[in-house]
Amino acid sequence: MPELPEVETTCRGIAPHIEGQTIKQVIIRQFQLRWPVPESLNQILTGLSIRSVSRRAKYLLFTTSAGTMLVHLGMSGNLRIMTTGQGPGKHDHIDFIFNDGTVLRFNDPRRFGAVLWTSAPIAEHQLLKDLGPEPLLADFNGELLYSLSRNRKVRVKSFIMDSHIVVGVGNIYANEALFMAGILPSRQAGKISLARYQKLAETIQVVLQNSIQQGGTTLRDFVNEAGNPGYFKQQLRVYGRKGLPCVYCQQPLKEIRLANRSTVFCSDCQR
Known about the structure:
Helix content: 10-25%
CATH topology of the largest domain: Helicase, Ruva Protein, domain 3
Largest sheet: 4 strands, antiparallel
Oligomer: single chain
Distance between the termini: 29 Å
Shape: elongated
Order of helices and strands: HEHEEEEEEEHHHHEE
CATH architecture of the largest domain: Orthogonal Bundle
């Protein structure tokens, strides 16, 4: 599943091609995604210019003078910049065609993605209004994690993966950040000190920033906006390395299931 770094990479990749451009036509070949694509989307968007492309959590936001289009990549979706004349493939469900000939193509083999529209203030949208802070912005820090964790018995890995606490810390990045912070994933969130949460907030930011710089984490279905795989997987220290030696102490890494998710850690380096 594309995670925050993959979505951010896509956002940065497509924005220069379509910001300021006017939509000439929207071709919808498949309306049945996670939620139905609005039947009037072509009518709504034709003639509008894209003012900005941004990201909130894993949602891409395309802002126009009339409202905002929300795009979620689901389990296997991607957006690519094409040119007119490049025919669609089997899972190319939507084309956004611009006046200059640029085509933004939405591809989603599993159809768990979404393309939605709202004319209301985007911050009030039901999919966004209850989300936690962005992990790469100033309002996310160890003090916030510490205050929200008090009296919480949930495991710390599940705690930081909760989008109401902070957005975008998916399974891979939770594994990596907890390892770098030296925190055992199964520790109760409410029993971790402020100092350790300050360290954890820092490692979450480092792991996500590194992944964005590398172009995302290579997953089976993920490609960036150019159709190329990401590369951060080459630098993973624990995720997917069960039984291999810890990069610090050389002890074999262990794996457990937390909230039905694979969790790899070092029992010597993480406490």
